[in-house]
Write a structure and sequence with these properties.
Distance between the termini: 42 Å
Radius of gyration: 16 Å
Order of helices and strands: HEEHEEEEEE
CATH superfamily: Phosphoribosyl-AMP cyclohydrolase
Structural class: mainly beta
CATH class: Alpha Beta
Number of strands: 8
Shape: globular
CATH architecture: Roll
Strand content: 25-35%
Largest sheet: 4 strands, mixed
CATH topology: Ubiquitin-like (UB roll)
Strand order of the largest sheet: 2-1-6-5
Length: about 130
């Protein structure tokens, strides 16, 4: 059972001041996380109702790990705790945007990189080329 209310109608969902996240069929909402100081995209993850509630309560990022099937407090083992400075919800409340400060060395990716987005896909006439590392 979600601790969040369901918006009574489209107007309330899109224009109202009540957080009414629209979780998908798996009970998840997509969450984009950026560095609060630089705006750099750090990661995209998912939250279930419990992860979202804990993130709001603690001011630290919690996610739902789809691969592990468990709640995940970002940085609990790595020390790279994400302190949330701002949480935004999109127009139809099915996506979140966290602006965070990252503790430790500032990395977010499990590969040890700062951002999970470290590869570039060539486009147009270069589309056949392999991924490039940024």
């Amino acid at each position: 059972m979600s601790p969040f209310p369901t918006a009574p109608d489209k107007r309330a969902l899109e224009e109202g001041a009540t957080l009414s996240p629209r979780f998908d069929a798996n009970g998840l909402v997509t969450c984009v996380t950026t560095d609060a100081a630089t705006g750099e995209l750090l990661m995209v993850a998912h939250m279930n109702a419990e992860a979202l509630a804990r993130s709001i309560e603690t001011g630290e990022a919690w996610y739902w790990s789809r691969s592990r099937g468990e709640l995940w407090h970002k940085g609990a083992t790595s020390g790279q705790i994400q302190t949330i400075l701002e949480m935004r919800v999109d127009c139809d409340q099915d996506a979140l945007w966290l602006k965070v400060n990252v503790a430790g060395d500032g990395g977010c990716c499990h590969t040890g990189r700062r951002s999970c987005f470290y590869r570039v896909k060539p486009l147009r006439e270069d589309a056949a080329r392999p991924l490039a590392f940024a």
